[in-house]
Design goal:
This protein is an alpha/beta fold and 180 residues long. It is built from 7 helices and 6 strands; from the N terminus they run βαβαβαβαβαβαα. Strands 2-1-3 form a 3-stranded parallel sheet, with helices on both faces. The protein has a 3-stranded parallel sheet with strand order 4-5-6, sandwiched between helices.
Length: 180
């Protein structure tokens, strides 16, 4: 597996460096470089994961023109639901131009358990025409703490870390189940 960090903040690659992870990664942010390099990088590994920028940009478009699967995280807020809708529109454009790929799905992240907003967000996202994954990543301080501690939820102790790890495992299994 190889990670491409295409986000201007470089949070994925900085996190991997802080953890002293052995996971290989490359930082590629230019849309032209993404278009040119993703096919070659894909040929050299079993799975290529691209961490794209948060907003819609030419880099996002380039990624969608080269990937097989697009997973869109969405927080259950009005602004984020609108952004997810814009991302789905961009995915639909890429699917139209490419006559198929990328396959796509949305999942809720940083959701608060048992809130009406969570239920409303799921309802709204289900109307986008893109599958909404059943996995939900709930808001937890332990998840926010991982970056600063150079760790993952699997590295931390406590009930909250264990619950977060289970949610991420479920999400990863659901995503892997979408792969051809």
């Amino acid at each position: 597996m190889l990670l491409v960090d295409a986000d201007a903040q470089r949070s994925s690659s900085i996190w991997l460096e802080a953890m002293e992870s052995q996971m290989p990664y490359e930082v590629i942010q230019s849309p032209d470089d993404l278009l040119e390099r993703i096919p070659d990088l894909t040929a050299g590994c079993d799975h290529l994961v691209v961490d794209g920028p948060a907003g819609l940009s030419e880099a996002t478009r380039a990624i969608l023109f080269r990937t097989d699967l697009a997973i869109v995280p969405c927080q259950p807020t009005g602004v984020d639901l609108r952004s997810a809708s814009d991302a789905v529109r961009l995915i639909r454009q890429a699917q139209s131009v490419r006559s198929g790929p990328p396959q796509a799905a949305v999942f809720l992240s940083r959701a608060v358990k048992g809130t009406k907003l969570l239920d409303e967000a799921i309802s709204l996202l289900s109307k986008t025409g893109v599958p909404v994954l059943s996995s939900v990543i709930h808001q937890r301080q332990v998840v926010a703490d991982t970056f600063g501690q150079g760790a993952t939820v699997w590295d931390l102790s406590g009930r909250s870390a264990t619950e977060a790890a289970k949610e991420f495992e479920k999400l990863f299994k659901e995503i892997l189940g979408m792969l051809p």
